[in-house]
Amino acid sequence: MAPLVPLLTEIGDLKRLRTADGEGSLAERAFRRSWSAVVAGEPVGEVARRETAATVAATRLGGIDARVLRRSGLDGDEAVNVLRRSYDSVADALPEPLGAELREGLGLLGGTGDESELAGLPSFVGALARQPRAGATAPGKPRIMLEPPESHADHCATVAFYGVLLSGHFGAEPGEVFLAGLAHHLHNAVLPDAGFAGEEMLGDHLGLIFEGLTDEAISELPEGVGDEVRSALGLVGHAESAGARAFNAADVIDRVLQMRHYARAAAFTLDQALDDLDLVHEGPLKGFHEEVLGEAGLR
Question: What is the pLDDT of residue 187?
Fold first, then answer.
């Protein structure tokens, strides 16, 4: 799995990217789109491949998606070519045939990102986007505050995408793993996240609370979709099948990469921006910019 980690890290950064034309991070918006498509009855496997392909392309393009490209004057083929160029720049580590299937799916992307198309979503979708995750907690120890907190929608969408990309490694069915990722925190639509430490305080009540609140969320779904979600949630809490291993690998990798993000953000230095990332990059103004920073004592 190690060759995939750089790509997974960049996908995780979509939790922190936003654009002016919609609420929430790009990951949250993908979470809403995915649930909208699933609730509308689209095959889960198709939703999984389409949204994961768009997410891989977004690691370089950010919020420049198919809808934005078309609004900016590109025709359909031109937009797809831009998306595939971005996809190809990061997709070397993806196993085949999954990599080729996702790339082909970029040609099927519609006008993603329009919030007006997402009316009628179950209430748990918005609640999970508002519900912060607890971060790292442990029984008997004080909470470590990590800012800004990610939302449960951020986490669930990211685990869903990771699960699709890891499915080939484990021989799992991508759609089932994707749906488990989307749904594995349904109980947190109502239950604030107090982390492992808080869950320990709930004691013997924990299982009943999780089960009851998950049932409450699933009751908002059409019957057939609810059945699919219940089946996918059977992957949670064990590693006895290919799908369960893919899902739980995706879950733990996202939790650790999120903590690594906080650690890196806390240790970030100006020298890294200027030297490693070429903040003052090549171009006609580079010399002037360097002079300005030197005179200002910033270089």
Answer: 98
CA separation for the pair 146, 156 (Å, rounded): 19
With beta carbons less than 8 A apart as the criterion, state whether 127 and 190 touch.
yes
Domain ranges across the chain: 2-268, 269-299
Mean pLDDT by 10 residues, the chain (299 residues): 95 97 95 96 96 97 95 95 97 92 85 56 97 91 89 98 96 97 98 94 96 98 96 96 96 95 90 86 90 87
> What are the CA-CA distances from residue 172 to residues 42, 46, 70, 125, 178 (Å)?
20, 15, 35, 26, 10
The structure tokens listed for 147 are: 């800012």
Cβ proximity of 160 and 182 under 8 Å? yes
Distance between CA atoms of 298 and 226, rounded to whole angstroms?
57
Cα of first residue to Cα of last residue in the chain, in angstroms, is: 40
Give this prediction's pTM.
0.90
